[in-house]
Design a protein that fits this description.
Elements (H helix, E strand, L loop, with lengths): L5 H14 L3 E7 L5 E7 L9 E7 L3 H8 L2 E8 L4 E12 L2 H7 L17 E15 L4 H14 L7 E6 L6 E3 L20 H16 L3 H8 L1 H10 L4 H8 L2
Antiparallel strand pairs: 1-2, 1-4, 3-6, 4-5, 5-6, 6-7, 7-8
Helix pairs in contact: 5-8, 6-7
Length: 247
């Protein structure tokens, strides 16, 4: 038997991460195009790597919104475990009686007094298209070590694993997010020069380099008088002086 692919492993990881997260923020698109998120309990939902199901009230606005635009997003977060999952896909109301019976339990009678045959009971099926997950160290010590490593290496990836998984179609694929250093050819967003402070430091090094080639350049950097004299004697240095003044 062939070993599971990275994408298949990631799909199982996603199922494990959301397994005991009680609440998901279920986002739908309203008729006027607004995004609305509502908490839904995931205790009565299962994820098989391709689909996830929820019991909802048939008269809830979600049903009408899904009919108008089936695009939805499911957001899961566990601060305790330091894990986060975002699933996007297409939703529909399922009439699959076998699924309804498989997912039903008597605790749902608090919401649907008529039981499994309650006319207001609806099963929403979400066909997952893509999912992104963040899985970081859960303990305080683990977080501290990961944070320190990320600062030293300038690689945010040290804070935990982050993958995007394409779940639709016959073949699943897994890739690094665009923000990942390896996805950008090894360049890290945490490196000096990407932010305002980093850009200033890089500019300072660029300007300082020409100054080392001549004593006149050094004098221009140290005293205004020497700078004027150097400017008169060596017009070619005005470009470097302009960069220094613009810092």
């Amino acid at each position: 038997m062939a070993s599971p692919s990275k994408a298949e492993q990631d799909a199982k990881t996603i199922a494990t991460l959301i397994e005991d997260i009680d609440i998901t923020m279920f986002t739908t698109v309203t008729r006027d195009g607004a995004l609305v998120s509502r908490p839904l309990s995931t205790q009565k939902a299962q994820f098989d790597g391709e689909r996830v199901w929820f019991f909802v009230a048939a008269d809830s606005p979600k049903i009408d919104e899904i009919a108008g635009n089936p695009s939805v997003n499911l957001a899961y977060a566990s601060q305790r475990r330091n894990t986060y999952v975002s699933v996007s896909g297409q939703a529909r109301v399922s009439e699959d009686r076998a699924k309804i019976e498989a997912f039903w339990n008597d605790a749902l009678k608090a919401y649907f007094p008529g039981g499994i045959d309650d006319p207001n009971l609806a099963l929403i099926e979400v066909a997952a298209h893509t999912a992104e997950y963040w899985d970081g160290p859960a303990t305080l010590i683990g977080k501290a070590i990961a944070f320190a490593a990320a600062r030293v290496t300038k690689r945010e990836e040290g804070m935990g694993e982050n993958r995007i998984v394409d779940l639709q179609g016959g073949r699943k694929t897994s890739r690094l997010p665009p923000s990942h250093a390896d996805a950008r050819g090894g360049k890290s967003t945490g490196a000096k020069g990407t932010g305002a402070k980093g850009t200033g430091k890089t500019a300072a090094k660029t300007v300082a380099a020409p100054a080392k080639k001549s004593s006149a350049g050094k004098a221009a950097a140290n005293t205004p008088a020497a700078g004027k004299a150097a400017a008169k004697k060596a017009p070619a240095k005005k470009g470097a002086a302009g960069k220094t003044g613009g810092r």
